[in-house]
Automatic annotation (TrEMBL):
<dbReference type="InterPro" id="IPR001509">
    <property type="entry name" value="Epimerase_deHydtase"/>
</dbReference>
<keyword id="KW-0210">Decarboxylase</keyword>
<protein>
    <submittedName>
        <fullName>NAD-dependent dehydratase</fullName>
    </submittedName>
</protein>
<keyword id="KW-0520">NAD</keyword>
<dbReference type="GO" id="GO:0070403">
    <property type="term" value="F:NAD+ binding"/>
</dbReference>
<dbReference type="GO" id="GO:0048040">
    <property type="term" value="F:UDP-glucuronate decarboxylase activity"/>
</dbReference>
<dbReference type="GO" id="GO:0042732">
    <property type="term" value="P:D-xylose metabolic process"/>
</dbReference>
<dbReference type="InterPro" id="IPR044516">
    <property type="entry name" value="UXS-like"/>
</dbReference>
<dbReference type="Pfam" id="PF01370">
    <property type="entry name" value="Epimerase"/>
</dbReference>
<dbReference type="GO" id="GO:0005737">
    <property type="term" value="C:cytoplasm"/>
</dbReference>
<feature type="domain" description="NAD-dependent epimerase/dehydratase">
    <location>
        <begin position="12"/>
        <end position="237"/>
    </location>
</feature>
<keyword id="KW-0456">Lyase</keyword>
<dbReference type="GO" id="GO:0033320">
    <property type="term" value="P:UDP-D-xylose biosynthetic process"/>
</dbReference>
<dbReference type="InterPro" id="IPR036291">
    <property type="entry name" value="NAD(P)-bd_dom_sf"/>
</dbReference>
<keyword id="KW-0963">Cytoplasm</keyword>
Length: 322
């Protein structure tokens, strides 16, 4: 695997105050790099990066990536975009703008600086997939006019822009297709399944299985995911992706609910609620490319990753912060 030199670099992390972005900032700082965190705090929080603010190599800037940005950095991680269906459907036009205008601006910045740029893409580009598990050469099955489309199509268009800048300007790009990721600093009320189930269990409420609860997802612990992102950025120019990053362990939502109940020690019951529109039936990454190109495999099993996640949410509840 060709690698870059590891002397100190300054990375721009857009969406750096979000769930994944803040963990990425932590890891880059711990590796001795500088970080410029750019975020408009739409779904992220200053609390997620508060512990970094005193570090001389960390800088936070409030900025919306749909507007141009002129800064000097050595590489860009483009994570800015709401990720939970509840959040990204609240202002769908802004979601598409963030993905598309945000990608154009960050690609323009990367082009001017001639630095590598990584895009946080998503398993949602596969839509409700007709092949299983999903490989990177699958073109997807996405409803272009549904309520998830602002996110799915925005991310698909961003991938198109990345590859066009690569072909037109020889820009060094890295496209990561991230599958469902969980861990501490997820927003407790973002409506995603892991945060919902744990928060419901901790509050002694019923756990809401949407539909029959037999749909599947594959859950990657955030530390594993961040390791994959950093390894991808550290590859040479020949590695563009797209690369699936996710944990191949596949669970039904019913199984996840059982695990959340066990991890919290709660006595919650499961109840059924309506299935949201266009909810993918199944999702599991084929990570052959990530294994070969990045020597990466997730290390943290769901049952182990749920423990620190539960501890994080329990602390929020006990401190009255959620
Ligand atoms: P998140 O909502 O916690 O983080 C997104 C961050 O982007 C937030 O801090 C938000 O304030 C910021 N942001 C949103 N719009 C912005 C804008 N216009 N300008 C500047 N900042 C903006 O979500 P996350 O789970 O940390 O996701 C991070 C990235 O990873 C997203 O691009 C998401 O699409 C992608 N992703 C996440 C998952 C997952 O399971 N968490 C799965 C696939 C892809
Ligand atoms: N851009 C930016 N920062 C930079 C360079 C460019 O935000 O340092 C923006 C720029 O405003 C433009 C976009 O990136 O809207 C695309 O730039 P590019 O040079 O590719 O295209 P052009 O300016 O020719 O439209
Ligand atoms: N889900 C659920 N109960 C909830 C929240 C979500 O059963 O309280 C289901 C949802 O219908 C989907 C899966 O969990 O099938 C994952 O949903 P999430 O919003 O976390 O992410 P998605 O992968 O759909 O973007």
């Amino acid at each position: 695997m060709p690698t870059r030199n590891h002397f100190r670099k300054t990375y721009l992390v857009t969406g750096g105050a979000g769930f994944i972005g803040s963990h990425l900032c932590d890891r880059l700082i711990a590796a001795g790099h500088g970080v410029l965190c750019v975020d408009n705090y739409l779904t992220g929080s200053r609390d997620n990066i508060a512990h970094l603010l005193g570090n001389p190599y960390f800088e936070a800037m409030r900025h919306d990536v749909t507007f141009p940005l002129f800064v000097e950095v050595d590489g860009i991680f483009n994570l800015a975009c709401p990720a939970s269906p509840v959040h990204y459907q609240r202002d769908p036009v802004q979601t598409t703008k963030t993905s598309v205008h945000g990608a154009i601006n960050m690609l323009g910045l990367a082009k001017r600086l001639n630095v590598p740029i990584l895009q946080a893409s998503t398993s949602e580009v596969y839509g409700d997939p007709e092949i299983h598990p999903q490989t990177e050469d699958y073109w997807g099955h996405v409803n272009p006019i549904g309520t998830r489309s602002c996110y799915d199509e925005g991310k698909r268009c961003a991938e198109t822009l990345f590859f066009d800048y690569h072909r037109e300007h020889n820009l060094e790009i890295k496209v990561a297709r991230i599958f469902n990721t969980y861990g501490p600093r997820m927003h407790p009320n973002d409506g995603r399944v892991v945060s919902n189930f744990i928060m419901q269990a901790l509050r002694g409420e019923d756990i809401t299985l949407y539909g029959d609860g037999e749909q599947t997802r594959s859950f990657c612990y955030v530390d594993d995911l961040v390791e994959g992102l950093i390894r991808l950025m550290d590859t040479g120019p020949a590695v563009t992706g797209p690369v699936n990053l996710g944990n191949p362990g596949e669970f039904t939502m019913r199984e996840l609910a059982h695990q959340a109940i066990m991890a919290t020690g709660a006595g919650s019951r499961m109840i059924h609620a309506p299935l949201p529109a266009d909810d993918p039936r199944q999702r599991q990454p084929d990570i052959t490319i990530a294994k070969d190109a990045l020597a990466w495999t997730p290390q943290v099993a769901l049952i182990d990753g749920l423990k620190p996640t539960v501890a994080y949410f329990r602390d929020l509840v006990e401190r009255g912060l959620s």
